[in-house]
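Data availability (excerpt). The following record was deposited with the supplementary files.
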Amino acid sequence: MIDTTTSKIEVNDLTMAYGSFVVMREITFAVRASEILVIMGGSGCGKSTLLKHMIGLISPSAGEIRYLGQRFDNAPEEERAKMLRKMGVLYQQGALWSSMTLLENIGVPLREYTSLGDREIREIASLKLALVGLRGFEDYYPSEISGGMRKRAGLARAMALDPEFLYFDEPSAGLDPISAKRLDDLILEIRDSMGTTIVVVTHELASIFAIADTCIYLDADTRIMLAQGPPHELRDTPPDQKIRTFLTRGES
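Predicted structure:
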């Protein structure tokens, strides 16, 4: 049973499907304030699909999603827009506009959703870039910086509106181990300094054990969520051997 008194995000009996094909069914879990949840599982289990449901890109076939106790998946358009303003998303490739500088990229949501002037937008965008370690790179284009820097610039844009919730889709994909660790450290720093509630889709073991307060495991074979809990507990005392195999990569 979900404790709705402490939960920031609640997913209740969620079924994800494409037409008659069911990806996952009856998923139930909660995320508490300032918690980092990792969605994990093997290829094809629906990790990214679940994230897309949580940010409103796909509608559930059954069940519900709530933010701060308020129904999100079928909310009226105006209420839904208010809830979306509280979310920031870092997509797998960063999703930066190649024709814009980093500062201009971060300024896009500020121009679209606020009435701030050019000077204020530039100041805020510069601050967000500084927060992710990109001070001095305001006028660079995405093609002029490394993959790890593009991920951090994408994170700066996701943080532009000071979101209450941050979503990451495979943030370490394509990064070398050092860049991946820097990104993990940055995610923890954001959570600790800003109190942001964070959801991460990843299959990277180093990231799972470094950042996750709690994890959920989606199983592609049974099409159900097998467990929720801290990664070390799920590895050491798993409710299903599949979870231990995943978290140890099959090592004894």
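Summary of structural features: The first strand starts at residue 7 and ends at 18.
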